[in-house]
Amino acid sequence: MTSLDKPTEETTEADDARAVTEAALFEAFGGVRGMIETVLPGLLFVTIFTLDNDLHMSAIAALAVSVVLVVVRLVMKDTVKHAFSGVFGVAFGVVFAMMTDNAKNFYLPGMLYTLGLALGYIVTSLAGVPLIGLILGPVFKENLSWRTRNPGRKKAYTKASYAWGFILLAKSAILFPLYWWADTEQLGWVLVTLKIPPFLLAVWLTWVFLAKAPAPIDVFAEMEAAEEAEKAEQTEKAERERREQQAADESLPGPSETDGEAADLRGGRHRKA
After folding, report:
1. pLDDT digits over 237-260, tens only?
2. What does the chain look like in DSSP terms, one character per residue?
3. Would you kindly state where each structural domain of the chain is located, as residue ranges?
């Protein structure tokens, strides 16, 4: 290896780690398609309500498009967790708005969820079990190994969780005053506008923190290696027992030798007689 080869290899490894991190983040948070599925129902609701102030039509359209997104994913045999979460969120908003006969309440369950999630990120970080680590641990195949075996990675997860928490808290600080002071259309358009930018900022900061963190410990690979080692040990033990048994069998006198010795003894007795 030359002095020029080493930096190239290190750069390649760093690039690979960043690529893995990006892929994991896209998988965990749904990527571009997940963002579209998150924005579209609320955008349709506020658009229709802005045009004709019809709560029922707006609510039905938002719920219908959420269901269609789930059906499309099912037909394509794709993961439906993001689409299903969107359906449940829209359904809660529709029910709440219908029950109170207030279109503004269509947004309230989602706002409360955002506030609760913000507090969840901050509280779990303070408790030493950052929520973003619980979410991304299985995606990186490290589960909870970062808690006790990878302190650098735990630190990165803690920073990322604080970032998510404070970003969502700032978003809530904008939306809740608007819920009380603004009308439905103003709240709806602001909420739609704030769907993607804070999310992208939080994902980007998460990527920055994790890209600089130590590589994840693949506990799944460790378990597979342990299973393979155990199987190899059992195979070796069985082979060793087989060889020992074979050696023991070979050390015993054969039937012909035993019969010959018995015959010699009988012959000797007859001659003496």
Report:
1. 878 888 877 777 777 665 555 555
2. --TTHHHHHHHHHHHHHHHHHHHHHHHHH-HHHHHHHHHHHHHHHHHHHHHH--HHHHHHHHHHHHHHHHHHHHHTT---HHHHHHHHHHHHHHHHHHHHT-GGGGSHHHHHHHHHHHHHHHHHHHTT--HHHHHHTTTTT-TTHHHHT-HHHHHHHHHHHHHHHHHHHHHHHHHHHHHHHS-HHHHHHHHHHTTHHHHHHHHHHHHHHHHTSPPPP-HHHHHHHHHHHHHHHHHHHHHHHHHHHHHHHHHSPPHHHHHHHHHHHHHHHHHH-
3. 5-217, 225-272
